[in-house]
Write a structure and sequence with these properties.
single chain; mainly alpha; extended
């Protein structure tokens, strides 16, 4: 690799590593505002995506009527979901948390069924433990979805700090950039 490519790569790693660390610290220090900001950005995305889908449906000359109606309907629903998100960002966040809680419960049930019915390649005890932990996690998330989101945000922030720091620590040496 030539020296310009190494310097460019180093700059990329430094910028992304520092951004990851800063965003991770923000998520750990202010988890609720971080979640709200993410929800608001997602709401803007949903409004834009829904609007574009509706425009595509209206201008979709030469496409089937079924596609146009489906695309327009889906676009409208996506746009409305984005508006709901922009009006009250807590609503979609709680919906996501509830969906995650239900998924944990379903995973726990599936693991326990697999443990007792038996499936190849797994031991019963670890599968039972995994199933029980999934059930407990699902109940906790469903009982306290706001707390679950905060904990998730803090852990995600910690992960960002670790990944950013690791990227900076694993930079190619400056000597490689000079060759």
């Amino acid at each position: 690799m030539d020296s310009r490519a190494v310097r460019s790569f180093r700059a990329f790693v430094v910028v992304t590593g520092v951004v990851a660390i800063v965003l991770g610290i923000v998520a750990v220090v202010w988890p609720e505002p971080s979640l709200v900001l993410v929800a608001l950005v997602f709401g803007v995305y949903l409004v834009a995506a829904g609007s574009m889908r509706v425009v595509a449906a209206v201008r979709g000359h030469g496409t089937t009527a079924v596609w146009r109606w489906t695309s327009g309907t889906v676009g409208s629903l996506v746009g409305v979901a984005g508006l709901v998100t922009l009006v009250d960002p807590a609503v979609p966040l709680l919906v996501y948390a509830v969906l995650a809680g239900v998924a944990f419960l379903l995973e726990g049930v599936a693991a326990l069924v697999g443990a007792f019915v038996g499936h190849p390649g797994s031991s019963r005890l670890p599968t039972v433990v995994s199933g029980l932990l999934s059930l407990i996690g699902g109940v906790v998330v469903l009982v306290a979805p706001g707390l679950a989101l905060t904990v998730f945000t803090v852990f995600s922030g910690i992960a960002l700090v670790v990944v950013g720091a690791a990227a900076l620590l694993l930079l190619p040496p400056r000597a490689a950039a000079r060759r």
